[in-house]
Design a protein that fits this description.
- This protein has about 375 residues and is an alpha+beta fold.
- It has three domains: about 130 residues, Rossmann fold, CATH 3.40.50; about 160 residues, ATP-grasp fold, B domain (D-amino Acid Aminotransferase, Chain A, domain 1), CATH 3.30.470.20; about 70 residues, Dna Ligase, domain 1, CATH 3.30.1490.
- Helices cover about 30% and strands about 25% of the residues.
- It contains eleven helices and 16 strands.
- The chain has a seven-stranded mixed sheet with strand order 6-5-4-3-2-1-7, sandwiched between helices. The protein has a five-stranded antiparallel sheet with strand order 14-13-12-15-16. The protein has a four-stranded antiparallel sheet with strand order 8-11-9-10.
- β1, α1 and β2 form a beta-alpha-beta unit.
- The longest helix has 20 residues.
Length: about 375
């Protein structure tokens, strides 16, 4: 193949399904078409895999039954790799066709796409792919696991408690007593979710119980953090692989509620499509010393998880104590944080080019590792 064929996979069974569609369509339409052949693969909410040119246009997703649009066909990854060649099998009305591709580009936010699940499938099938690996994706999705690691790396994190829903169901008083040692108010979150879904602020026990019940609809593990009252959020993006790591300019999101909500990110004030458009200040109006600290910790967080591809790292700055806290890492951020890279002098097209090249490089390095060992174990008597 003269050009690299990229399989852009998006959608999926996740509460961030629609945001994944927006991010994927943005990416698909910013690839250098002279250099890449793009094959869109959309996973609907019933886990049906679909492909076809209409899936590159976000307007197609405004239809209620997209699978019934013309030019869209069911597809699946073939489970066998032939001589380092990878194929997508597409079922057309009267025949089946195999489309060869070079690398998969998962753009699935949240569950089943950002949590190491689909990355594990790629690893098992030995398919090259863009972005973080299984472990860094899984840890990056789990707010509790990442905080434990960041704390070991001596990065400030907000004081927190966590628990499993089965413990909550068996002994609510024990959980409440443990959590309330942090002192109100609290921010209650599902441990494995993004886009501010299922997050609530609790100022007393009644609100805490309600917030836990809300979060439990989305995950079996709940994290409760000390809520910062007078604070500002600062984010920046990191991209790279192994020793090559770049850090973007910082942004300061502007929220309308006590927490930066789903509506703040994706709905309010939108003039065009995507999370690029919620209110933010770029570059963030912060001191030079604070900017350097944000960028240093962002890079450290990314590398401590063995990150690759592009991530966005979110911070909170306590205006009262003048302390910076790392809130979380997003290993497949909304819009792939391209707007931060554009402000850093890297176009979206060039960012995508780097991501694909790093993905191919990561795959080659992995395949150079010894995975088999010849032994005489079957020559022994058992």
């Amino acid at each position: 193949m003269s050009n690299n064929t990229v399989l852009v996979i998006f959608g999926g069974r996740s509460v961030e399904h629609e945001i994944s569609i927006i991010t994927a369509c943005q990416a698909i339409n910013n690839f250098d078409k002279k250099k890449y052949n793009i094959v869109p693969v959309y996973i609907d909410k019933n886990n049906t895999w679909l492909t076809g040119k209409p899936l590159t246009n976000i307007d197609s997703f405004k239809k209620k039954e997209i699978s019934k649009l013309g030019g869209i066909y069911k597809c699946k990854l073939l489970p066998v790799v032939f001589d380092n060649k990878y194929f997508l099998e597409v079922k057309f009305p009267f025949y089946v066709k195999k489309i060869e591709f070079d690398i998969a580009f998962p753009i699935i936010h949240g569950t089943n796409g950002e949590d190491g699940t689909i990355q594990g499938m790629f690893e098992f099938m030995n398919i090259p792919y863009v972005g973080c690996g299984v472990l860094s994706s899984a840890v990056g999705m789990d707010k509790v696991a990442q905080k434990i690691i960041f704390e070991k790396e001596k990065i400030n994190i907000i004081p927190f408690k966590y628990f499993w829903i089965y413990d909550w169901e068996n002994n609510k008083k024990m959980i409440l007593d443990r959590v309330e040692k942090l002192k109100y108010p609290f921010c209650v979150k599902p441990s494995n979710l993004g886009s501010s879904v299922g997050i609530s602020i609790a100022k007393n026990r009644r609100e805490l119980i309600y917030a836990i019940e809300v979060a439990s609809k989305f995950d079996r593990k709940i994290i409760v953090e000390k809520a910062l009252i007078d604070m500002k959020e600062i984010n920046c993006s990191v991209t790279g692989f192994e020793s090559t790591v770049l850090v973007s300019v910082c942004e300061q999101p502007i929220k309308t509620e006590k927490i930066l909500s789903y509506e703040d990110k994706y709905i309010k004030g939108r003039k065009t499509k995507g999370s690029k458009n919620f209110s933010k200040l770029i570059p963030a109006p912060i001191s030079e010393s604070l900017r350097k600290q944000v960028q240093e910790w962002a890079k450290k967080a990314f590398t401590s998880l063995g990150g690759s591809g592009v991530s966005r790292i979110d911070f909170m700055y306590d205006n009262k104590t003048k302390k910076l806290f790392l809130n979380e890492i997003n290993t497949i951020p909304g819009s792939l944080s391209f707007y931060l890279w554009e402000k850093s002098g890297l176009s979206y097209t060039k960012l995508l080019d780097k991501l694909v090249n790093w993905g191919l490089k990561k795959h080659k390095i992995k395949n150079d590792i010894l995975f088999t060992y010849e032994s005489n174990v079957f020559n022994k008597d058992y």
